[in-house]
Fold each of these.
Amino acid sequence: MRAKWDQYTAAYEDALTHCNTEWARWHIVPADKKWYRNLVISSVIVETLENLDMRYPDPEPDLDKVVIPD
């Protein structure tokens, strides 16, 4: 492994560089403490979903006739 360490690190850097795109980003997540790892991952997910700016579609015009049972 040590004999090819330079090749390994170069290939690893290439993989990270070519796979990290604007629409599919890499995030470095520290994993020494599980609670902190979970916080970082949750924060990234929440930020990503908020940036999608999703909205409910407009309702169909005849949906006001739908009756929801009690």
Note: The chain has one domain: 2-53.
Amino acid sequence: MNFQRGRTREEPEINLIPMIDVLLVILIFLMVTTSYAKFSELQINLPQAGGEAGTAQVQPLNIGLDAAEHYAINNQGLPYSGVEAFAAALKKAAGDQADPTIVINADAKTPHQAVINVMEAARLAGYGRITFTTQNQPQ
């Protein structure tokens, strides 16, 4: 049964003009906002240097801290009597090194203040390279 006699069914058509307009706007936007690097136009002559590899190896300062707040510098026990005294002990242990690496080996249960004391002493001594040691969790 065809109840719509005389009506012809229109075939749907896809109008491509709006889609092309949108794509052109996107293309223009990308062309305007993209910055192009022109490395091929730069003529850079890098300086050359020659020299011997450094033979002096820098020894880090190993600072040990346990849960009972016992301090040690390079495995030598040291009574803690203040930040200034500890800074002087760091300078003495560093010897002639200008800026040694300070490795803090702190127990997991060491109070936070003890680690901060070591960091403050390193700052007072003029040392800025501080690192911490950790261990992997057992699986």
Note: The CA atoms of residues 19 and 30 lie 17 Å apart.
